[in-house]
Specification:
The chain is of the alpha+beta class and 379 residues long. Among the domains are: 150 residues, no CATH class; 109 residues, Leucine-rich Repeat Variant, CATH 1.25.10.10. Helices cover 41% and strands 11% of the residues. It is built from 18 helices and 10 strands. The strands form 4 sheets. A 4-stranded antiparallel sheet has the order 1-2-7-4, with helices on both faces. The relative contact order is 0.13.
Length: 379
């Protein structure tokens, strides 16, 4: 058995679902990526521009590189009934964040695979491993490694596994055996993901305007969410799976056996009102091993305030009043917007009282805007 096949077998044994080895070479999609950046579609993710040189040629990261092992692991665990997902009093969290932080889980598997290679290939000296963290165009390498094709939602789709995939790579300084490029399946004329996106973030086949993408808005964006997009977010409080939920290729996607990906109590459809009462300490304790920690407390509660406003029920007023008194201006700002969506005297009174004592100009602007829709508050 040659070493490439041995590596493949070991990767599958460790729990990876797809694995392929390709020769290291400069990016083939860098011009399209540059165009995407020039259009401003990266939003505030300035780090993507900083990594442009490395993404253009993988040899700038590791001059000795000869091969790239591109891998994918399925994270699909369960399906939430639409009746529950459409309950506006509950928050929807992207399924990749239901369990433990996938970076740690997948990286541990990568390190085991790297150790296996080092033990079986004495002349292998240098290597690097990445799990959605390296300055490389990982979806391009996954595609070149025959793991799948680029869907119209820009995600890698595999004809057997669907798109519920975490991608990873190992960079090696040795030559390996390479199989020819072969990808089965495509999106054909299907446009379900484009039609289903609530914010129209998929502006063309495979082209995403991150500034409109709910995953970007609720996770990557650190400031205020544009007011014109808030209503479209609904009860999505961390990420978005809509374009994957409607994809026909995901109908028969397998279920992951990885224990770490299994849902943690409270991460599936949490109660919005209870989330708004999370203290900084409680947030850190609850999400310390979760991808949700990325958005930090102020980001998550910003999202929760929008969801409560979209719920629009008087039951949400006490939680939004609590948010309106939070120490974080970002939370107060979006709580004010949320109260402005609820046609009730208590919501109006809370906004009027806050206006008298608020010092932050951004929050004051939100309060004034919210009060404008309360000319004739309803009891």
């Amino acid at each position: 058995m040659n070493i490439t096949q041995s590596i493949t077998n070991k990767a599958l044994e460790l729990g990876f679902d797809l694995v392929h080895t390709i020769p290291a070479s400069p990016s083939q999609s860098i011009e399209a990526y540059k165009q995407w950046l020039s259009l401003g579609y990266a939003g505030n993710m300035d780090y993507l521009k900083k990594h442009l040189e490395n993404k253009q040629d993988i040899h700038t990261i590791m001059p000795e590189i000869r091969s790239v092992i591109t891998l994918a692991i399925n994270y699909r665990t369960t399906t939430i009934p639409c009746s529950k997902k459409n309950n506006p009093s509950l928050g929807v969290i992207s399924s990749y964040a239901w369990g433990e932080d996938y970076h740690q889980i997948v990286r541990k598997k990568l390190e085991s695979l790297r150790a296996f290679i080092e033990n079986h290939v004495p002349h292998q000296k240098k290597s690097r491993v990445y799990v959605d963290t390296g300055p490389i165009l990982e979806r391009e390498y996954a595609h070149r490694g025959s793991l799948g094709w680029f869907g119209k939602n820009s995600m890698i789709i595999n004809w057997k596994k669907g798109s519920w995939l975490f991608l990873a790579e190992i960079l090696l300084d040795i030559e390996l055996a390479y199989s020819p490029f072969s990808v089965r399946g495509d999106c054909g004329s299907c446009t379900r993901c484009i039609e289903a996106c609530p914010t129209n973030a998929i502006v063309a086949d495979g082209l995403i305007d991150s500034r409109r993408c709910i995953s970007y808005l609720t996770i990557e964006l650190k400031g205020a969410i544009p007011s014109e997009l808030r209503s479209a977010i609904g009860n999505l409080i961390f990420g978005c799976d809509i374009c994957q939920d409607v994809c026909p290729w995901n109908r028969k996607a397998p279920v992951s056996n990885e224990a770490g990906f299994q849902p943690t109590t409270g991460n599936i459809m949490p109660n919005l009102i209870s989330l708004m009462s999370l203290s900084p300490k409680e947030f850190n304790q609850r999400f310390k091993t979760s991808p949700i920690k990325r958005t930090k407390r102020k980001g998550l509660l910003r999202n929760v305030a929008i969801a409560l406003g979209n719920w629009g029920r008087p039951e949400a007023i006490p939680a939004l009043k609590q948010g309106l008194a939070d120490e974080q201006p970002l939370i107060r700002m979006h709580s004010a917007w949320g109260l402005g969506q609820i046609e009730h005297q208590d919501a109006h009174d809370a906004l009027a009282a806050a206006q008298k004592q608020e010092q932050d100009t951004g929050v004051l602007q939100e309060i004034r805007g919210a009060l404008l829709v309360h000319h004739t508050p309803k009891l």
